[in-house]
Amino acid sequence: MTRSPLPVCGPEGPLRAAPSTQGPSPVRAVLFDFGGTLFQMGAYADRIRTALQRPVGEREMDELLDGLEKGLVDPDVIEAQRGRDVSSRAHRHAFTTWYASVRELAPHADALYAQLQAPEHWVPYADTASTLARLTDEGIALGVVSDVGWDLRPTFAHHGLDRYFSSWVHSYAYGTEKPDPALFGHACRELGVTPAGTLMVGDHPAKDGGAAGAGLRAYVLPAGAVPGEPRGLDAVLRLAGAGSALQAHLG
Fold first, then answer.
1. Is residue 155 part of a domain?
2. Residue 49 Cα to chain centre, angstroms
3. 113 shares its domain with 146
4. Which residues does residue 39 pair with via DSSP β-bridges, in sequence order?
5. Claim to verify: residue 28 and residue 146 sit in the same structural domain
6. Which of 120, 140, 162 is the last residue of a domain?
7. Domain range holding 105?
8. How far is C-alpha 215 from the chain's CA centre?
């Protein structure tokens, strides 16, 4: 019987005594999610106005946004989200189905999806660049592990951030989604680090937090981020052992 690298636990704790250690392994690598972690999409109102190519008043915009909100509970839209990130085709279908659930936006579903893939529509958080620079200065390897339907490297390059990363794991390229251990394991192998020495950072409790099931440490950022504002990534620096880093880097 092949044992998991993680201890088997009963209701009260591990079934077998763990070997004595001097504490957790130092963090040698940090894996980052993409949207909601390092970047955020621009405002939907701005995207809709661009796609419609005409002025849209506040009242009409509210109705369109209400329509998108209602679409999130539409059975057809919900069904389209299943396996959304396992292929480029599934990803496109999921999003265009949602956009098209609003009658006025249906003719522009493809244009809205094209925006989703366009680097200029993504905004890095205010502390993204400084955090990545500090981690790199500390000799910590960085990778991206994202549930996504297209290659993210052009977006990072557009904002001058691709140079910090040595591994890119896009779910659509592997036909699976987080928290599948295969995605985290692949990134660790590319970076030449063990799961025990790796920290996964994201904004989804089940998907990104699920990295713990693959033997990594995980940090889930709180909800409520604003495009272009600080994301609270200074916590990642502390978890990675980069000292008071962000203040030192900015100061």
1. yes
2. 26
3. no
4. 35, 124
5. yes
6. 120
7. 42-120
8. 19
- Per residue in 17-26, is it b (16+ CB within 10 Å) or e — as a string? eeeeeeeeee
Residues 53 and 160 in one domain: no
Q: Tell me which residue has tokens 């522009």.
A: 108
pLDDT score recorded for residue 216: 97
Q: Are 143 and 166 in contact (CB under 8 A)?
A: yes
- What does pTM read for this prediction? 0.87
Residues ≥6 apart with Cβ < 8 Å to 109: 95, 96, 97, 99, 100
Which residue, 98, 120, 142, sits at the end of a domain?
Answer: 120
Q: How far apart are CA 101 and CA 68, in angstroms?
A: 7
Looking at the structure, do residues 104 and 159 belong to the same domain, yes or no?
A: no
Least confident of 39-43, 175-179, 242-246: 242-246
What is residue 212's DSSP assignment? G
Query: Peptide bond preceding 230: is omega within 30 degrees of 0, i.e. cis?
Result: no
Domain total of the chain: 2
The contacts of residue 49 (CB under 8 Å, 6+ apart) are: 55, 56, 61
